[in-house]
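Subject: Integrase catalytic domain-containing protein

B.,
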Amino acid sequence: MIEIREMLRLWLQGRGLREVARLSGTDRKTVRRYVERAQSCGVDRDDGVEQLTDELLAAVIAGVRQSRPNGKSDVWETLAGQSEQIKEWLDQGLTLTKIHILLARRGVVVSYRTLNRYATTELGFGKRRTTVRVADCEPGAEVQVDFGRLGLLPDAEGRRRVVKGLIFTAVYSRHMFVFPTYRETLNDVIAGFEAAWVFFDGVFAVAIPDNMKAIVDRANATDPRLNDSFREYAESRGFVVDPARVRSPQDKPRVERCVPYARSNFFAGEQFRDLDDCRERAARWCRETAGMRIHGTTRLHPAEVFASDEHPKLKPLPDTVFDIPAWVNPKVAPDRHVQIAKALYSIPGDLVGQRLTARIDTATVKLYFRGELIKVHARVPAGRRQTDPADLPSELTAYAMRDLNTLQHKAEADGPHIGTYAAAVLEHPLPWTKMRQVYRLLGLVRRHGADVVDDACRQALEAEVVDVGVIDRMLTRGVTGTQLTLLPPPAPSRFVRSTTDFAVRRPS
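Prediction pasted inline below.
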């Protein structure tokens, strides 16, 4: 009523409708409706403002606004009849503009503004979830971590690439650190954490990152599964990882506003030589600019609060370099080896076809089966093989490892002549190429007995016959015990010339 009285008073003073609308903050068409209704009720500019009684204003309002017994307009009641359909469309993800079009097709013609007010008031459209401000933690307890896009930066090859900032914000003091990087791999994330610990000169008790894939393998609100390598890194540095929920920035609000702040205040408009220059200047900006600003919430200098309250509470800075491991799940091949990083490693026991868990770093390879450590190897370069003879079956160890001494000892154990014969077979520039013949000789021992094979080897040695095939034929034909004779030398070919034909007479 006060607003309507003010509109009519300005009009009675002789002002035009446009000026009345501007001064009263009301639409010009609304002003016209009220003025026309007031004139129909007998209001005249010549009678002054005294004629604006409460009874007259009530009559003007009643004439402009239709009667609403239940406090709702007819249009509102019409929309209420379409409430279920409108709600169904909103649940399907339709925009309110599209719903306005669909209602018109059904013959429900209302203004978009009225539809928007109805959906907002009655159906909760566009209603934001109620949030509360979480209390700050104790000094040195938490640091929140987030990735944010900074801009474009040339790499070593001169290409302009997107550079991102791994941003750390101390929850208590709001002191922040920015680590620019091109990628979001595990190695880059751990490098960022290591640089942050150096910048803060200590380690926070809890780190709250978002669900970056380099850290979290499986997101879960209550039991997230962390990457094995990063979990091992966190254990070595002594901090706990508590990832935020998926699409829940309110879980790490202290770092969220730092991302656009770093992008606009640090990176925008600057020229950097390379990534190293960007990182160096980012650390300096964090100390001198971001750290010394008056924070909008705490109204204090973050760097000073950090130095006085938080730094003494941090865990000591690590003095060792973390060797980043990799975890893989290789399958045991029929040769009792697994392939890891293009190299082969032997496995003890009969685990052919089983999947193992392998941890590999720069020095060692650890192999686990069902959570139990079963083998540790020294790491070898790609293309090489690391085989422990104890991992192979005893009957195959000598062959697999080309162990000539062990094979020789096995032959000597069956008989002295067998051992001598085996040594004669292995007397070759490439002795491992003759190992199969020795194994054939040992097979004859198992088939015919050691005494018979030893006697056959004796006879063959006396006849200077070094051929395991001859021993096999002797035993098969039962000719052992008879004296072997050397075959006569073959007759020379008729085309062979005497050596004297090539003699050269030297001059006297």
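The chain has a mean pLDDT of 87.

T.
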